[in-house]
Amino acid sequence: MWKRVDKDMGGVAATLDYDAELMIRVREGDGACFGQLLEKHRAPVIRFLYRMVQNQAVAEELAQEVFLRVYRSRSTYEPTAKFTTWLFRIATHLALNALRDGKNQRLETRLEEEWSEAPACQVSDARPSAEQALMRQDRLEEVRRAVAGLPEKQRAAVLMHKYEEMEYSQIARALNCSESAVKSLLFRAYETLRARLAHMASVQG
Amino acid sequence: MKCPMQSGETAALLAYSSGKPDAARAAEWEQHVESCSACREFVAGQQAVWQALEGWEAPPATDDFDQRLYRRMELERVRPQPWWARVWRPSGSRLVRRGLPIAAAAGVLIVAGLMLERPPATRAPQPRSPQVDVLQPEQVEHAFDDMQMLGDFTRATRSDAAEL
ipTM of the predicted structure? Predict the structure, then answer.
């Protein structure tokens, strides 16, 4: 899906991905290509935002804003980076702002209710016994709290690294920092997570 | 192989822990981790973290997500955003986003410079205090009275001396 183009951007020949090509077609007025981008990236963006703010309603609201901004920017879009990097840069920016504004605090009660009412949707195993389900729910709650306890930038870096499998350079662009800063963020974040979650290894077996 | 915990190759150690080591050095890594207790502990702890994180699934999008989005896009098409929202959006023109703060900072510096460079206004001569004008004749009168009293006193002492 990768394509090398000769287009020179600021003196550096850029490698254009398929998504960026779609976005260029959106810029040229092809609305169907926006639909394709939405179809492909909707789930990862919502997943990322959900794990960032830990509230489904807020995550969806933010994801809508992400795609709205993508659509609004179509006329000025320049493929200077991988499309996913740009998309996650917008998503990260919105998530960090929402966390700083305390937007998800208002729905904290709803979050707690969500967790107590709907454990089934969070658990991978289809039919666990009641005891297993409770244990799994406890472990999940511990994971959720450990991730929520990370500083915002470390959290974003871990989520992009672990779940979206993004490279250090992509995470750096999304977080607007250097690659060495990303390495440092990840090292500190995983150090904290190891201290909080390493004991789960024996339990998970 | 030098211990990555000491050489600062933590990114490579993370990659090894996640099961994606540098293919060319995989065997070398394997050998080192087996012999190094610190790295073994790191890898075991990190693998537990990966495993714990993998169990955390996010719920899928609600069914009407796209519908709501397209409705909002349609609303924006009908009612475009105000100019300031278009300028300040994070995904907007890089030139505008970078240029505006620089222009604002330059503006502040110019204003500050002008204020500092402006020559101090020449001080207008202070009008004499009206209080001084009022008191001055009184002071003169007092001075005359004092001189009169001193003169009287001198004369009185002289006449006393003559009588003696």
Answer: 0.76
